[in-house]
Design a protein that fits this description.
Layout lengths: L2 H17 L4 H9 L2 H6 L4 H33 L3 H19 L18 H4 L2 H14 L9 H11 L3 H17 L10 H13 L1 H22 L3 H19 L24 H6 L2
Length: 277
């Protein structure tokens, strides 16, 4: 993996893992795996948290294996470094489009949560490792940023299977480490205070994610030795973003009449979808 792509990919991986903390699953883990909650279940928080971390690393390695498979394919294609930088630029621009809410489907993607019934059915090491593996894999639960996809894409474009595997493991490690944010939650007041602080950072974390992606794209575009490659990659990415953006549906709700010349672009409700088939 080239130094440039490797550095950009590592930064994106860390940012993607941190941003993913604001998923419903990530937030619920900071409620159900705490010293307070584990004591109520007669278990030790530290033990469950360590199993969670181990599961997250395993899940991240599984995610990295997807990138490693892609890296094997990219290597067989014998693409030049400039080709791979251009492809990375395309991927980054599209990711920015998703995270900036320019194109559909809107983030979050894959709206699935872990099964919290496990908390009552299994031992702490089982639900700790099981939840951690799903969280660490990144694609198994709510996807809060398109940068999660970039973990695989940038790993593949590095054309180094080992490097791609390490990127996935890094993602899982950072994602899993978030569980220790709740290490000081020993009573209900501290739990509420923790979630208030996290809630206040919801939108700033999304904006920060977009900024990181923009910086990554600028670095790739600015350090390539062939400006035409950079411009071509950005142009293709912007065109793909525009093309996908055209698929956004415009829905006029029968319950609200927009002013003359205006278009109501609100998301359809369940009732509206039933009325319109």
């Amino acid at each position: 993996m080239s130094l440039l792509l490797g550095s950009v990919a590592a930064g994106m991986v860390v940012a993607a893992a941190v941003r993913s903390t604001w998923s419903p699953c990530g937030l619920s883990m900071l409620s159900v795996i705490t010293p307070l909650a584990e004591a109520a279940r007669g278990r030790r928080y530290r033990t469950t948290a360590m199993w969670f971390m181990a599961g997250a690393l395993l899940g991240g390695t599984a995610l990295g294996s997807l990138g490693a498979l892609g890296a094997t394919v990219v290597r067989s294609l014998d693409l030049t470094a400039q080709d791979r930088v251009a492809a990375a630029l395309v991927a980054l621009v599209i990711a920015i489009g998703f995270d900036a809410d320019v194109i559909s489907p809107r983030i979050p993607h894959h709206r699935r949560q872990v099964n919290e019934v496990w908390l009552d059915q299994f031992r702490g090491w089982v639900y700790g490792a099981g939840f951690g593996a799903q969280i660490g894999f990144g694609l198994a639960t709510y996807i809060m940023t398109a940068a999660v996809y970039l973990v695989v894409v940038l790993g593949a474009l590095g054309a180094n299977p080992t490097g791609a595997l390490l990127l996935g493991t890094l993602f899982g490690g950072v994602r899993g480490a978030a569980i220790f944010v709740a290490a000081g939650v020993t009573d209900a007041q501290r739990l509420m205070a923790l979630h208030r602080r996290i809630d206040h950072l919801t939108e700033p974390s999304r904006i920060a994610m977009v900024v990181v992606e923009l910086v990554a794209a600028a670095l790739l575009a600015g350090t390539t030795t062939h400006p035409g490659v950079a411009l071509g990659g950005l142009a293709v990415g912007l065109f793909a973003t525009w093309l996908v953006g055209r698929s956004r549906k415009v829905v006029v709700l029968p319950s609200a009449t927009p002013p003359s010349g205006a278009v109501d672009v609100r998301e359809p409700t369940a009732a509206t979808r039933r009325n319109h088939g």
